Amino acid sequence: MIRKQAENGNITGDPPLLYYIQGLRTGLRPNRQTFMYLLKALVNGKNVNEGEEVHASVVRTGFASSEFVLGALLGFYVANGFIGEARQVFDEMPQPGLVLWTLMIRSYVCLTLPGEALELFLMMRGVGVMPDMVAVATVISASGLLGDLGVAKKIHCFIEKSGVEVDAFVSSTLINMYGECGSLTDAYRFSQETAMKNTVVWNTTIHRSLEHNNLDLGKQLFDWMPERDVASWNLMIRGFANVGQYEEALALFHDMEISVFRPNTLTLLSTLFAWASHGALEAGAWIHSYVNNNDLNRDEPLDSSLIDMYSKCGDIAKAIQIFEESPRTTRKKQIRNGQICF
Each residue of 217-251: pLDDT tens digit? Predict the structure, then answer.
């Protein structure tokens, strides 16, 4: 029963721990699979007391030395945000493997605790455990969150000397790291030096260029790209729109139309948001016309953005018209967010 609840997401709604306790009363002798399925079934309960009860049972039944069981227990605490309890379990492990080191480091990154993540990475290296690409990407993310360029460069230097394979994902993470540390120069330099330069790497560099208000570099990179995807077009259209260069944004929009890609909902959402922020009514109205002519608002995903755009651009009558024609759920959202005022 516990296994079924773990595999099916506890569809019965009955407490998994209750089944476990009842099993013990009838002579159940738990093994490591019992605890692994039990913790998996409990993982969405966000109840630290249940986790601690299972933890105590793990110790009592002699499974405190099982890396599989302790890994499941660690996963339970991490998944529910109980970082203190997770670290306690981790520290009690005699020789955690790379997967568990990475999981613990990643948990600190997810909770925006980069200092703790990097400290744990140093401990991992201190006991001789070498990272793989997943661990490296996690540590790079921690360095970006920390925002210290000196630390970022040390991590990058370690990666180069360690011989760890740097794929396109790790490359894009390094570019993001330098961007988050405020160094577009280092982000751009690495993007040009790396051999793993796919569309994601190009897009990441463009994104960081635009984020650092270097539209010229972003456009240059966009023009250099051997292959583009929808995200590439969206980045540049939004980049021009965000700084009020509507003619350039519309020109790119038209270029995208005749390319192998077509503007999608994200393209339209980002441009409407930018033009609403700048009060560009004419450009926003053109997008609205494009949406209607191409039947791109079939499920009304753009209603909120259109209402917001017309309101901020001063055409309240048009905003009210779309509001009154939109589904009730959209109306409630607009009223709740206060995006339209009568």
Answer: 999 999 999 999 999 999 999 899 888 888 888 88
Confidence bin at 6 (pLDDT 50/70/90): very low
3-state secondary structure the chain: CHHHHHHHCCCCCCCHHHHHHHHHHCCCCCCHHHHHHHHHHHCCCCCHHHHHHHHHHHHHCCCCCCHHHHHHHHHHHHHCCCHHHHHHHHHHCCCCCHHHHHHHHHHHHHCCCHHHHHHHHHHHHHCCCCCCHHHHHHHHHHHHHHCCHHHHHHHHHHHHHHCCCCCHHHHHHHHHHHHHCCCHHHHHHHHHHCCCCCHHHHHHHHHHHHHCCCHHHHHHHHHHCCCCCHHHHHHHHHHHHHCCCHHHHHHHHHHHHCCCCCCCHHHHHHHHHHHHHCCCHHHHHHHHHHHHHCCCCCCCCCHHHHHHHHHHCCCHHHHHHHHHHCCHHHHHHHHHHCCCCC
Q: What is the C-alpha separation between 172 and 169, in angstroms, rounded? A: 5
Least-confidence region, from 161-170, 189-198, 269-278: 269-278
Query: How far is Cα 310 from Cα 282, in angstroms, rounded to an integer?
Result: 10
Question: Which amino acid is residue 184, in one-letter code?
Answer: L
Residue 339 pLDDT exceeds 60: no
Q: Is the pTM of this model over 0.85?
A: no
| pLDDT of amino acid 71 | 83
For the range 87-95, what are the long-range contacts, defined as Cβ-Cβ under 8 Å and sequence gap of 24 or more?
A: 89/55, 92/64, 93/67, 94/65
CA 150: distance to chain centroid?
25
The candidate with the shortest Cα–Cα distance to 252, out of 223, 225, 227, 276, is 223
What would the pLDDT profile of 164-182 be if each residue is shown by its tens digit? 988 999 999 999 999 999 9
